[in-house]
Structure formats: structure tokens, C-alpha cells
Amino acid sequence: MKLFLLLGVSSVIGFREDRLDLHHLQPDQFSRVHTLERPKRSAEKSARIRRSSSFPLLRNKREESSSDFNKCSNFDTSKLKEENVLNKFTITNDSNPSISLVWTGDNGHILAVTTYESFVAYPSKLYLSKDGGRNFEDITDRIKNEYIRRKRGAVTATADSSHVVLIVNNHPLGFGETSDIYVSEDEGVSWTRRETPFELSGSQMKFHPKKSSHILATDATTQQLFITTDFCKTWKAVHDSGKTSAFKWDPKNEDIFYYTHDPLGSGRRDRFSMTLYRSKDDGKTSEALTEHVWSFGIQEQFLFVSVRYMAEGDDDVRRIMHVSTDNGDNFRAVQLPAISSEQFYSILDASENMIFMHVDDEGDTGKGAVYVSDSSGTVFSKSLSNNLYPNGDDVTDFVKVDSMNGVYLTSILKDDKGIESRITYDKGATWDPLTTPLNCEDATKCGCEKDENAFCHLQVHCAFSQVKGVSVPEMPYSTNFAPGLIFGHGNVGDGLATDEPDLYASSDGGYSWIRTLKGPHKTLIGDSGSVIWAVTNDEQIDTIKFSFNEGQCWNSFKFSEKKIDITGLVAEPGEKSTDVAIWGWDDEDESWVVFTFDFAKVLGNACSESDYENWEAHQDLKLKNNKSEEGCQLGKKTTYKKLKKDSICFNGKEYEPAKTASKCKCTAYDYLCDFGYYRKDPDTPECVPDPAFKSSGHRDICIGENEEEIVSKGYLKIPGDECDESQLSEAQKQKYHHTISTLKTKCPKQQEVPEDYGMKDSLSWRDFFDIDELDPEEIKSESSNKSAHAGWTIFSILVIGALSGVAFHFYRKSQNASSVVSYRNFTNDDVPALDSAAVQNSAAAGEFRDDSSDEDNDMITA
Questions:
Q1: Beta strands per DSSP E along 17-172
Q2: d(CA 775, CA 771)
Q3: Which residues pair with 357 in a beta bridge?
Q4: pLDDT digits (tens, 9 = 90+) for 552-562
Q5: What is the DSSP string of 418-477?
Q6: Which residue stretches belong to region Disordered (predicted)?
Q7: Helix axes 793-817, 776-791, angle to 10 degrees
Q8: Pairing status of strand 215-218 against strand 225-228
């Protein structure tokens, strides 16, 4: 039986949001902050648990005991009972239900801020640990027993985490004209109270990537942009009026920031009234770059801007994308389809000198196409169709694997509405299903019956599953400090299932997998991969699991005589720590409790040269008919020094994975298919003309003259690929470098639009800075609109009941018309529907390693 889950219903009126900022889910200022919530217990929750127990889940039907699965047999866990390995600390006389942990500096300092917000705020408490969380000192008096905001009330500077800001909740029932904050520049030891001349929220702050004293922020009420260059001592308004919708520091040039500004302050983005500005002198002056802006994003060297595009004789306003690689001095229209008001663009990744861009399909389909760019960010080629990305939701399963260059995971939406995982090892040149886990070859052990399913591949759960209430405590997890290592929750079959997932691990960058633990677990990578920690995704625990061989087997240690309500498994961000802590709530004592483990003492000695071995990345990549190029990926063979599976030692914080690389001869796999070409057969590297592109008349790129000329070479070298072209034969050089065809198309007049539309000095340029520089008639018109709006307020209240009924009717209609996604269920034909409370609880669990549960302000506009 399939369980159908509705895709998020989005408004059918107005434009879809573009997602051009990769950091809106995890802003830099929260990268060293973890927020934990005390568990909420209620009769309703207990009843829900009792109801669900009548539906046995997959893991309960298996023969092996979950606690004994992949158990190690050669390690003495009594070491953890030795003195100074395990430490317990209890925070007494503090019933605040939320706690934010802030890692400050590099000396083991941790701040703990407890907060309580309801209809009114309650006094917060502030604690400081100077020994990595083993002991905490109450220093609440240093902030005068203030009320600190629960959501994003503690932030650290990106460039220097010893600089911390605590935001006081001055106005729990509304907004004010100023805000009070406390700042520390010495890792939380001393604090100074300061005032900002506007209402401040942590989500509306952007710290400079290299200068800890420089911060951009907007007024939470008016959205006016301010800047400080002295760590909150003084603030200066960048504009005297209007609203700033999005603002970002340039990641490459420390003197530049960008922002979009609406001088009317109407908030009506459908008028495309925003202008993109650039400042090079800390906001003293600003230069307009682009008008008619819908959204913009800055990633690495790429500055993207989505602008209005309304062709002559066409009533449908569309958007096109421009890119700059010189800080906005010059823009070029990108070779991507123009999109309608019901579609959106989304940058999925912009690392490694190229861009992955999702372009939403027409209609409310919940999917789209992934395009990859050349190194200029201008020429794009289609990489993958049917990429899952629900309309109206900022939820995508696209994940970059940090432990292996060029590897990405995503999900596709199939014709039968099933969801299936895909992986690429070559930056999107080819995509493959994940292999069957090695210890699931007898697939019935992992819940897949080959007689009933088309195939038994590993399916990995990501963000969409978390939102839909599947018990997935975390996203796929990897780090560049542990080459090849990946953890992810999933099931084995021909599509994602709603059954409780198991934890799977790969040590070779996703080529092969094993089922490493039964059931969902929260995990952490420590000491650059020499130790992995895990706890079950249960409400109450008393045991921690750990592995010294990348999840090949696990040890268990019972750290408490009674179970605690777990709120977090945490370690210092960066995956280099040998300390791990379990935070929880003790119901009997009504107090916060933390168990800290010093695994440096458990691991023993520092690793020596004999503890490492050479490991060749992508050694399982076998090119057909070309065995000599095994292990070549992106034009080179990369060899790492990797810890042996049987070595138990610690790497230390100074450890960096050593690697060497040698170039390989170029093959077709070192090239993407150029615009208008595709790989017809996924098992062969040849690029052939795309018949769909040819029959379409190429009208999706009619943004220039009457006749648009597009030169396509059939093959486009993958950005960052380092293969040696000197070893190619003349025939191969001709194949990969000569112009295969020149594509031409005649665009209907109504589709013509100047390629520089909205760019500075173009015919559409208006050039205004603040509201005083606008045409008085336009200001008058806007003012009249506001007055008319006020005049209709009373009438609107009278008819709101009737409108609510109509809205409910259309909402139900849109629900019925929305796309649905079916998850496979291989073990139980009577899967209960997920109730809303279960979805919320699962989503909360999914925030386990996330630094904040809220979205960044930029997501609204970028």
C-alpha cells in the first residue's frame, strides 16, 4: 500500500520566491550556536504513542536485536567509567524550557543561555563553562537578570566567535523603536550593555565574514538597513527611507556589500520596484546596479540577480536571470529558461567553481530540472530532470557531500509520484541510483522483497521526509575532515518508504554502503572521523554508542542509572572535537543535566604514521572499456592518508587529511553535454542532440535579437576538471573541441526583450535612490493607494467572514488539485496517516544539528 503525502500548497496568486542564497537555512552567525528545547509531555502525546503501537514498524519485525546489531567485540567499555572520562553536571533552580549553547573562541568556553517566552517573557539565566562543558558558573548578574530572546537571541561573529551578542527581549508583545543588547569580546567573560537605534532581531543580522566588528542589520519593523563598524557601539542608516528586502556581504571582497531597496516602502514586490545596490565604503555611499529586481544572491564569485521580463504584447510578467563575476561591474544574461510568475529559480550549490541551479517546471508539479553551469556562470546545461522541489516550500533533498569532491545526493519525483534517490560522483555529469547496501544483499533482511519490488536500491531520506513527518532525525551527514565518510537514514527498495528508517554509512564517498545501525539515530563525527557517536532517536535514553571504524561496528555504554529526556547530542562545531555531551532534562529533579565524555582519554595515544594507510578516492569508479582510468574522477586520481579501520587513536585538532593527486587522460566523462545535447543512455558517455530541444524552437532563450545564434560544441568540460588533454588523439580533440552545430532561432516579436533589461545605463534605467528623488506624481499615487486602503478597512472587516468561507472553498479545491507524493511501504499495508502533531515532533527532531529552527530573513526575498 502507498501512503500519499500532499506536496505543500502554495498561493496561486503572485510570484514564487526565488532561492538564491544558500545560507538562509543556517546563517553564519548561528554556526556555533545550538538551541535545545525541554521535551513537552502531555496526555495527547501519550495517547498518540499508544495508538501508533498497534502498527508495528519495520524494525520491530526483524530477527536481530537492535542493541546487538553490528556490535564490536574487542573493546573494553569500562574505560569510560574511569575518572575524568565521564562527567555529570546539573543546572539547578532553573526551569526555563529553552537553552542555547554558544561555543566562543578556541579555549573551551561555552555559554548556556536559558530562556522562557510565552505571552510574556521571563528572566533568562546565563552560565559560562571554561572547561568544555564539564562545569558551568552562573553569571546571570553580569547581564542584570535580563530577558533574552528565545529565538536567535544569542549570536556570534562569523570572523571571531569570541565576539558574542545577546539580544534583550524589550518588547515581548510587540516592537519598539530601539533595542537593548549585551556584547562580549572576550569569550563571554565580561559583558557591556548597548542600545541600537532600531528594533533588532538576530535573524536580521549579517556579520562580516572577515571583520568581526562589522555587522549589517535591518529594523524588524520598518526594514530600514543599518551598519555598524565598531561592534554595535554606533549604527548608521544606509538609507533614510524605504525598505531593504535582502542584504549580503561579498564573500570574496571584504569591502563590498549588496542590498535590494524599495524607496516606496510598499512591500509590493510584484511591482518589481526594488533596485540592487552595492557599497564599497561601509555604507557611506551606494551605487545602483540593477533595477526591476525580484531577488538576488551572492555565492563565491557569482552575483546573481533575477529581474522583470515583460515582452512586448505579452500580459504575463516573467523573470530572467543575470550573473556577474566582477562584483557587479558587468552582468550577462544566463542561458536558462525565462520563468513565469508560478515558477522559481533556486541555487542548489555554488562551490567548486560552478553552479547547480534548479528551475521549477511549469505548473504546480513539485519538481523541476537541475542545470549546471560553466566556470563563467553563464552557460548552463541540463543535468537532471524531475528533481524534487515542492512549489512554495523551501525544501529540497539536494545535498552536497562534503567528504568527497564532486559528489551530490538528491531525490527525483517519478511518474507514479514515488520518490527515488540519485547520486552523482562527477558534479552532475551523470546521475545514478544508490547501490544495494553490502550487508543487505539478501535484501529481505533490509525490508525489500525482490519479488514485489522493481529493484532494491538504497533510498536516502532528506529534508522533504523530515517535513512530511517521517522519523528522520538528521540530514545526510559528512565532513571534509573525514574523506569518503557519509551517514544517512534510509530504506532499501524502489522508492522512499514511511517505515522507520535505519542508519546507513559509506566509507568511500557513496559508492558502497552498509546498514550500520537499526532504527533512526542522532549521530556526530568526532576527531576528524576517528570516533563516531550515536544515540537512538527516542525520547528517553541512558546509553551512548560509539564506533572507531566509521560505523563498521559499535560499542555501547550505559552512562546513567535512570533514563533522561534527551534534548541534544552536541559537540563543538567542526567535527574535530574529542569531547561529546548529552544534554537532557531530569523530570524527577526538574533540572537541566549534561553528561560530558572526554574521548581523548578513551582513544589513548595520538595517531602515528603506522596508523594511517593510503586510500584512493573513487577507486570504485570503473569506466567501461577503459580499465586504466579506474579511480579517475574530475580528471585526476586523488590519494588520501586515511586512518586504518583497526587503529584506535586520536588525530587532534591540528590534523588535516593529507592527499596527493595525479592527472588522468581526458575521457568523455570529463565533459558535460553542452546546451542542446544530452546523454541518451546513462550507461554511455556520448552526448547526442536533444530532440526535445530542437523541436521546441529554442524559444526559452529568446532574449536577444530577432535571430538568436547559440554556438554549441556538444561537450563542455566540467568546471574544475583537471584531466590532461595533451594525451588526447587528434580525433578526440576534434570531437571535444570543434563546433558541432550553430543553433539559430527566430523569436516572435512578443518574446523579444533587450538582454540588458534592468541593467545600469540601459533604456529601462530610471536611477533613483530615496523616496525624495521619485516623481511627485508617483509618490502621490502611492499615498492615495494607502489612503484608499485605510478607507476600506472597516468594510473589509464586515465582509471578512464571507471571504473566509470563499478562501476555505478554494483552499480545499487546491488541496484536491495538488500534486501528491507516494512513499513506498514494504512491510505493512495498513500504515496510519501521519497526524499533524507527529509531523511537528518529527520536524523538531530533524533540527537536531541545526543551529536554529527559524529561516533567515533573506529567504523571504532571495
A1: 33-37, 86-91, 98-104, 109-117, 121-129, 137-138, 154-156, 164-167
A2: 9
A3: 347, 371
A4: 999 999 999 99
A5: BEEEEEESSTTS--BPPPPPGGGSSGGGGT--TTTSS--EEEE--HHHHHTT----S--B
A6: 842-862
A7: 90
A8: antiparallel
pTM of the model: 0.81
Please name the amino acid found at residue 238. Answer: V
What are the phi and psi torsion angles at 357 (to 5°)? Answer: -120, 130
Nearest Cα neighbor of 675 from 324, 428, 373 is 373
485-512 per-position pLDDT tens digit: 999 999 999 899 988 999 999 999 999 9
Q: What is the mean pLDDT of each run of 10 residues along the chain (862 residues)?
A: 36 50 48 83 35 28 50 80 86 92 92 85 91 95 93 92 92 76 97 95 91 94 94 93 88 92 67 84 93 86 84 69 91 81 84 86 89 85 91 80 93 92 91 92 72 80 90 92 95 91 95 94 95 94 95 94 91 90 90 94 93 86 52 86 93 89 86 79 75 51 44 77 86 68 43 50 51 44 43 46 46 39 38 29 28 30 22
CB 412 within 8 A of CB 488: no
Burial of 587 (0-12, 13-18, 19+ CB in 10 A): middle
Unique residue bearing C-alpha cell 554511455: 684
CA distances from 444 to 61, 492, 515 (A): 11, 9, 13
CA distances from 583 to 104, 127, 564, 580 (A): 18, 15, 9, 10
Q: Rounded to an integer, what distance in angstroms lies between the CA atom of residue 862 and that of residue 848? A: 25
End-to-end CA distance of the chain: 39
- For cell 510570484, name the residue: 15
Task: Give the residue among 543, 500, 503, 545 at the shortest CA–CA distance from 521.
Answer: 503
Q: Supply 410's cell numbers.
A: 538528491
Which 3 state secondary structure label does DSSP give 357? strand
C-alpha 861/C-alpha 19 separation (Å) is 8
Question: Within 13 Å of residue 754, how many CA atoms lie on the same side as its CB?
Answer: 10
DSSP state of 824: B
Query: What gap in Å lies between CA 693 and CA 677, rounded to an integer?
Result: 8
Measure the CA–CA gap between 240 and 248, rounded to whole angstroms. Answer: 19
Select from 264, 263, 291, 265 the least CA-distant residue to 276: 291
Distance CA 86, CA 544 (A): 12
- What DSSP designation does 554 have? B
674: DSSP letter = P
CA dihedral sign, ordered 305, 308, 311, 316? positive
Q: Give the 3-state DSSP-derived string for 279-316, with helices as H, strands as E and coil as C.
A: ECCCCCCCEEEEEEEEEEEEECCEEEEEEEECCCCCCC
Backbone angles phi, psi at 642, to 5 degrees: -125, 145
